[in-house]
Specification:
Chain C: One of its GO terms (biological process) is mitochondrial translation. Chain C: InterPro entries: Ribosomal_mL40_fung. Chain C: GO terms for molecular function: structural constituent of ribosome. The complex is a heterotrimer of chains A (450), B (267) and C (159). By secondary structure, chain A is an alpha+beta fold. Chain A has 15 helices and twelve strands. The longest helix of chain C is centred in the middle third of the chain and has 45 residues. Classes of the chains: A alpha+beta (450), B alpha+beta (267), C mainly alpha (159). Strand 10 of chain A pairs antiparallel with strand 9 of chain B.
């Protein structure tokens, strides 16, 4: 800044303040304060000393001369002085009307694109209506071809619906704030993209590394987001949960990414119940419910609230692990029922009341279900397990598992070494050195065996 | 080397330098003898074909045949590199040795679903099973555990037969409580491992300054601060007292010296 | 206070004293003559030297609304570019199809006069004399490279 500029700067600032009325100032209080201040500065050429207005008490818009007061009061001014002046003059402008040229140009381009997409949707809808009203015999390929065509047209319309809104910054903002309406395809699209970017990968990794896929189901590719909450806190997939925490049923957060309501069944399955008699593992059902309605906008699913007669088949059993047994993998499986089909819960109760030996594969096949969601946690023996088992009448708290002894294939070897060689009566004069060695032999003979 | 012999050797070696192919063998040998080296033109006599007789054998290869019974930890195959890969219930050691991890029967097999051209060694629980197991079938696992009732520790009496307690807690203000135990010689002493616990071993800060440079900078700043403070104090004193004796800041050593001097003068 | 210690006993005036080269004045003396002839690539080399070894610029850090505006502009820019590319592609394919159809038409026509089918097409495809008498395209005289120069041949070049 040159010298003359520096001298003229306060003057220029005064002039600028007087003509700084911007058309988009909509904040009533701030604007009023602004006008008042301008009137003050206009009426007296010398500004009156320090009469802070409401704006000057706000750390977001305080002027430099009132900064010290505010700091004394314990509030630090926010941002640069330049920003604070800007905040005074441009309050409460809606986001889409912000006066940035490139931004407004961009909005114009995006709006034009949206118009195009909407027009295309209209076209496709007309096409769909025409095809629907057309008789199947007139369509080349018959009814099956007509269905295929209709399905592909509808898919295209869904795609267009997403593309029409995908460039809207406000939609993006609303989704990021968690205010998106999941009944609209664009928000579902955003949610699915977010899920696929991390949580889906995590879940597939857990499925693979915990061998869920060959052990429980031959194939499992989740398409819905299932999250597990014990006592209001989220549990990462595969985490070891304290038996006291998992004593009460968890709450699920289920987000499906396709439109419409559907009925699902819910299974919580322990895949590692030790079976000492057969030297093997078996499975046990810890919770079984069916006919649970689910839609994209209803995400919360507390297992303790599922109590209806036509829903709950097998109530929650606290997952416990006996002492010394390897960790138990407890999977939460969400299986979608066929559209409109209800599962007979009475039959479920009759079949699976015993819990033990539950096979998810046969359950899936018997009631023609498709697994859509998965989450899991683990349970091990901890200091609370014995109490939990006593409270719920689960036997087995008094036994522990120890690794089975594997005996060597080699024949036993006689003791070797200097002392072992001199144990006989021929070496009686050395007995004081070769007998009763601490840790090796005692009065009854050789103790240490190979 | 003596002169005449040197001349003779030079006389011998000269023709071989000019055209060694024509030179007689005796001359060449003499040349090599003198210079202590062997030319490439002299062929080595078949030593490269002989194998060393005194090597330590590596004893590589299969240590267990197919269908043989093995227990965990048994070595199935020793190799350099991975001619064979660990399959079902097997692991590979640091030197590519393949060990069994379960009690069962050894199987040598290929698994195109896993890898197109790797050979695997596996262990199955039943002798008649074949590897690889069918795709998407449930894994075959064994518990490998035995059931035992949990033995609870017998409650220990608090007071010894002689009527004094086994444990005493010593409480001192400002110190952690100490648990003293009754020893066989009827003395109360703290456990050695508890004494060891008292010493803090982690998170110790041995050096206040990370580098020598930081330390010197800190020292410089400290001195500057001291000097500035002294000056200020002096100024303040001058302002408040006006007159009075201005004490000169001198070191302890210098003060002692001065006192000594004064004493001497007085004498 | 301005006098320095080594000059305490000197009798020369301070203005005549030998000046030590200060770090600010050192590169000034070493700088080359401004009027010296610059190479034709001077500007390119300068830009390269400035930018090639400099660290990457820091990542963009923006607040919420600013980021959203940035995102909007970015999306619009991508959309605009895609539309532009699509339009160019469409125009090119249209032109190519037009030429293809014309050639096809030529190939199918019979004549003129007693000429057989496709005569006109064959004549049209002939490249005789296009590159001068007995000539070949100048591109064939150069090495074929992955990144040819913008200007295939500098005809004005003289040794």
């Amino acid at each position: 800044m040159s010298r003359c500029q520096a001298v003229a700067r306060p003057l220029a600032r005064q002039l600028r303040q007087q003509c700084a009325i911007r058309p988009f100032t909509t904040g009533a209080a701030r604007a009023a304060a602004e006008v008042q201040q301008q009137q003050q500065s206009a009426s007296s050429s010398v500004p009156p000393p320090a009469q802070p207005s409401a704006l000057d008490l706000d750390p977001n818009s305080v002027l430099p001369e009132f900064e010290a007061e505010l700091i004394k009061a314990g509030k630090m001014p926010v941002g640069s002085r330049r920003r604070r002046v800007a905040m005074r003059t441009t309050a409460n402008v809606p986001f889409e009307q912000l006066p940035y040229q490139a931004f407004q140009e961009a909005r114009a381009i995006l709006a034009a694109d949206r118009q195009e997409k909407v027009a295309k949707i209209q076209e496709e809808l007309v096409k769909i209506a025409a095809l629907e009203s057309k008789d199947a015999s007139l369509v080349k390929g018959g009814q099956s071809m007509k269905d295929t065509k209709l399905a592909s047209l509808r898919r295209y319309v869904e795609q267009l619906k997403i593309q029409a809104d995908i460039n809207d910054p406000l939609v993006k903002k609303r989704f990021e704030d968690g205010l998106g309406d999941m009944n609209k395809p664009i928000y579902r699209h955003y949610a699915e993209r977010k899920w696929r970017s991390y949580d889906y990968r995590l879940i597939t990794q857990r499925i693979k590394q915990f061998n869920i896929v060959p052990d429980v189901l031959p194939k499992l590719d989740p398409v819905a987001d299932v999250q597990l909450y014990f006592r209001h806190s989220k549990v990462a997939p595969g985490a070891v949960v304290d038996s006291l925490v998992s004593e009460h049923p968890p709450r699920l957060r289920v987000q499906v990414f396709d439109a419409g309501s559907r009925l699902v069944s819910l299974v919580v399955l322990d895949a590692d119940v030790p079976d000492a008699d057969n030297d093997a593992f078996s499975k046990r059902c810890h919770f079984l419910a069916a006919n649970i309605p689910l839609s994209p906008d209803s995400t919360s699913l507390p297992l303790s609230r599922i109590t209806a007669e036509d829903q709950l088949a097998v109530p929650w059993l606290a997952p416990v692990s006996q002492k010394g047994a390897p960790y138990h993998r407890l999977g939460v499986y969400l299986l979608q029922q066929k559209p409109g089909a209800k599962v007979d819960v009475a039959q479920l109760k009759q079949l699976y009341a015993a819990r033990d030996g539950f096979s998810l594969k046969s359950f899936r096949d018997k009631f023609s279900l498709t697994p859509v969601g998965f989450n899991m946690f683990r349970s091990v023996w901890d200091e609370n397990t014995a109490d939990v088992m006593a409270r719920h009448g689960i036997p087995g708290a008094d036994v522990e598992f120890r690794p089975a002894r594997v005996h060597s294939l080699k024949p036993p070897v006689k003791p070797r070494g200097w002392e072992a060689k001199r144990q006989g009566p021929a070496y009686r004069h050395l007995w004081k050195y070769t007998k009763r060695i601490k840790g090796l032999s005692n009065g009854r003979g050789w103790t240490k065996r190979r | 080397m003596q002169r005449p012999i040197l001349a003779a050797v030079a006389g011998i070696s000269r023709p071989s330098l000019v055209n060694s192919a024509v030179a007689p063998l005796g001359a060449q040998l003499a040349n090599a003898l003198v210079e202590g080296r062997r030319n490439a033109s002299v062929k080595a006599q078949g030593a490269y074909k002989k194998k060393s007789k005194r090597g330590i054998p590596n004893k590589l290869g299969a240590k267990r045949t197919g269908d043989q019974f093995v227990i965990p930890g048994n070595i199935l195959y020793k190799q350099r590199g991975t001619h064979w890969w660990p399959g079902e219930n097997c692991i590979m050691g640091r030197d590519h040795t393949i060990h069994a991890m379960a009690t069962g029967y050894v199987k040598y097999y290929r698994d195109p679903a896993k890898h197109p051209d790797r050979k695997y060694i596996g262990v199955v629980f039943n002798k008649e099973d074949t590897l690889p197991y069918p795709l998407h079938a449930e894994r075959k696992r064994k518990l490998n555990k035995t059931v035992h009732t949990i033995r609870t520790e017998a409650a220990k009496a608090e007071v010894s037969p002689s009527g004094i307690p086994f444990e005493v807690t010593r409480v001192e203000a400002g110190e952690p409580d100490r648990l003293l135990r009754l020893r066989s010689d009827y003395s109360y002493r703290e456990d050695n491992w508890r004494i060891g616990r008292l010493v803090k071993t982690t998170g110790l800060k041995t050096k206040a300054f990370r580098t020598r440079k930081q330390w010197f900078r800190h020292r410089r700043w400290r001195r500057e601060r001291e000097i500035a403070g002294q000056k200020e104090a002096e100024k303040k004193r001058a302002e408040s007292g006006g007159g009075g004796k201005v004490m000169k800041a001198i070191s302890k050593k210098a003060a002692k010296k001065a006192a000594k001097k004064a004493g001497k003068k007085a004498k | 206070m301005t006098t320095t210690t080594p000059r305490l006993f000197s009798t020369t005036s301070s203005s005549l004293a030998r000046k030590l080269p200060t770090p600010a004045s050192a590169p000034k003396a070493a700088r080359r003559n401004r009027s010296a002839p610059k190479s034709e690539n001077f500007n390119r080399i300068r830009t390269l030297r400035r930018n090639m070894f400099s660290p990457a610029p820091p990542p963009l850090r923006m607040a919420r609304q600013r980021y959203l505006r940035h995102w909007t502009i970015h999306r619009a820019w991508m959309l605009f570019r895609r539309k532009q590319h699509e339009a160019i592609e469409k125009e090119r394919s249209r032109m190519h199809a037009g030429m293809y159809n014309a050639c096809e038409e030529l190939r199918k026509t019979v004549g003129p006069g007693s000429r057989g089918e496709g005569y006109l097409y064959r004549v049209a495809m002939e490249k005789k004399g296009v590159y001068g008498l007995e000539g070949v395209p100048i591109e064939y005289a150069r090495f074929q490279t992955d990144s040819p120069a913008k200007e295939p041949w500098n005809h004005d070049w003289k040794r």
